[in-house]
Design goal:
The protein has a four-stranded mixed sheet with strand order 1-4-3-2. The protein is built from two helices and four strands, in the order E-H-H-E-E-E. The chain is of the alpha+beta class and about 100 residues long. It starts with a strand and ends in a 7-residue tail after the last strand.
């Protein structure tokens, strides 16, 4: 079974930390830990199932995974790598 390496873009790192910060402002550490667990679980599955999530509606080269009802992550497949592009609020008007 092929395992893909996960890479994070600078935008992904920035938007992930922003999302965690927003969770901590509105809720508790438990909710932030739950979010981190969901992200880690998803990334572990993506390492062996690169097509786990469907293509983005707006950009077919990207794939979009819903993590929670408020948050999604976008990634792209680059050979043996999966690049995490960005995290975003599902309620926002975003480019993905």
């Amino acid at each position: 079974m092929t395992r893909y390496t996960i890479l994070w873009s600078p935008l992904a790192e920035k938007t992930y930390l922003k999302t965690l910060s927003q969770i901590l402002k509105k809720w508790t550490i438990k909710e932030a830990e739950d979010f981190e667990f969901k992200v880690d679980s998803l990334l572990n599955r993506l390492q062996t199932q690169k097509h786990l999530c469907p293509p983005s509606f707006k950009n077919k080269n990207l794939r979009r995974c819903v993590i929670t009802s408020q948050t999604s992550v976008v990634y792209q497949i680059k050979g043996k790598y999966i690049e995490i592009v960005a995290f975003f609020d599902n309620r926002s008007n975003q480019q993905y």
